[in-house]
Design brief:
Blueprint (H helix, E strand, L loop, with lengths): L2 H12 L15 E10 L4 E8 L5 H13 L11 E10 L5 E3 L10
Antiparallel strand pairs: 1-2, 1-3, 3-4
Amino acid sequence: MDYRKDGARHIYERNSHRIYKGQLPPLMHAVGVLQVEVDNRGQVRNVSWMRAPSHVPDVMREIERTVRAAAPFPAPVRMGGVTYTDVWLWDKSGNFQLDTLTEGQRSK
């Protein structure tokens, strides 16, 4: 089972009004790689940056808040918890896509 897709779909469902529609522009406001640890009940146990968009700390805080606010995630009961990673593609409008479900980027 690919929990990354489950996690991405869950975040999209909870934030449908904030998902960037269509292909993203060639230059992103922020790109970050976030690892999310989910316990067997779907609660977020921890979030940690593997590649932080540290030039925009407000975006980092908003991504972390968005992930925590989306709990509970689908419960990975059989696995007893899961840690997954996704790439956040953040537009200057404040809308985003996750690499797992992205519609791609326009060329220049």
